[in-house]
Specification:
592 residues; alpha+beta; Serine Threonine Protein Phosphatase 5, Tetratricopeptide repeat; 4 domains; 8-stranded antiparallel sheet; disordered N terminus; membrane; TPR-like_helical_dom_sf; transmembrane helix
Length: 592
Amino acid sequence: MRWVGNDAEESSARARRETGSEDSAPKDSADPRSWCAVAATRLGRDQPEAALEAARQAVDREPHGEWGHRLASLALERLGRAREAVDSAQEAVRLAPGSWAARLRLAGALRRIPGRWREAWAEAQKAVRYAPEEPGPHSLSGDLALARGDHRRAAAAYRAVLRRDHDHVGARVNLGLTFLGWEAPDVHHDPAWEVDPAETGQARRALQVWSWQVRGLLAIAMTAVAVAALGFDLHLQAQIGGAVVLGGVLAVTLRQAGKIRIWSHVPAMLGRDLWLSVAVSVAFFVIAAYVVGLATLPEPDTISWAWSGALGLVVFNPVAVGLLWLLVEAWRGRPVKALTEFALASSSRVARRNMDVALWIIAGRAWWGLLVLSVLPVPWIALAALAVPVAMVLVGRRANLRGVVRRDRWLVGALGFLVASAISLAVAGVVPGMARAWQGAWLALLAVAVAFCARAVRARWRGTPGPWRAALTRVELPTGDISPSSDLTDEVRHAVTFSRSVVLSYTGPDGPRSIAVSAVTSVSRSGELRVIAGEEAWEAVERDPRVAIFVGDPRFWAEVTGVAIADNEVLRITPRDVVVREYPGRQARVRT
């Protein structure tokens, strides 16, 4: 901040430094704020090592400057030094506890540390409370909620961002993900748990491997038992051999169980991860079915329903699980609403990728719907298939299909075959005896399935994102504001400390209130004001911590707005905006 009486050239030079237009060493190497401006510029150019060096130069020259510690924290986080980033962010918060930018930085650093999600959430909520008009705190709140799978709270936060910044690409993309019920790759792990994610990941792998090994082993054994008993009339030998295989199941179970060290978290992991729960549950069902199959193993020509069912479950459970996966993945979430959000952010590569996945999900829903219509016994119901072409037209209006043609021709082909199948079904439902129309509808549905499989194989072969939910990606923006903190000049510090004309303005229960302050006890080196005020002011800042201090001086008057925190019988006010007016009214403003 500069007092209005300074000449224009000096004010312009300082503004250039504070906005970070210089990235080399500043001309005034003794000025810590100049070094901060350099660090901010280097962070904007994705040069974290150089930014950290500049931030440390600023901290060395002014250890009480919140801005330098905040920039150092952001640079450390980008360098992957999360714990050091937390330390620097905590120092920034200690120096400026009412700074929303410092709270936001601390929240962003804390979320990188396993088990500190709750602390990160608390800091993000403080940032929201201190600066509700800023999109950054709402965006981080949404990211934290989304990481934990709280889609309702995440959607509310992203909508708050978009009300403040309609073109915020990250919030737009991530809001679309909430409509699809997006899950993080480590969905089994709750970021609020204190346990290391590596341990829950190891437990998940052990459970998955156990399920695959048990199901595979029993499928092979059941097939061998059936062949021996029914093909070679070795009934007793087949039962004995099958029972021995259960020893192998026990060995596999003990081996994988030994790799799990956090059994207390396993039930919660199963509750968070649907497909992990399905894999484990199916394995238990397969073991039970295998035992039933051995117990009811029939003689040749006396096959029972119980044995047939057990054989089918043990041998063909992968097919059943695969069909269940396709069905659930197609019908979970609201892909049309998600597609709308992705389309509004189509300038982003991530948004375009997510748009393609959303279209595949919509195609999957249409495929299942047409499949059901094609097998219903009432032909005229097939007329409902005409809803598919109508839906495709509406979807085409939301998405840029020309871009889809360039990115994924398999998807375009699948959509075309869906329309062809829908028209064939409608014709077959209207015109009796149109067997070829029914056949054409089924062939078109088969072509859609082939297109999906071909697209999936192509993605696996090339190592690129596939046409499934796992390919959905969120946008994670830097969690830190690099704008400068307020800079109280010596004149303002002196006026605030010694003036007898100090007024505190705050929001009371009935609206704005202003009272004369008993005293401003001190101004810290970081610029924090310590004010003695009445009980009503304390209650007011509990509701809304945003306040303003008006100070009169024989030469000028100043307005300092900021955030007040009640602490040890004083209000600690962290400045945010400082306006100095020289009588009769020229002014200069700095905002942080």
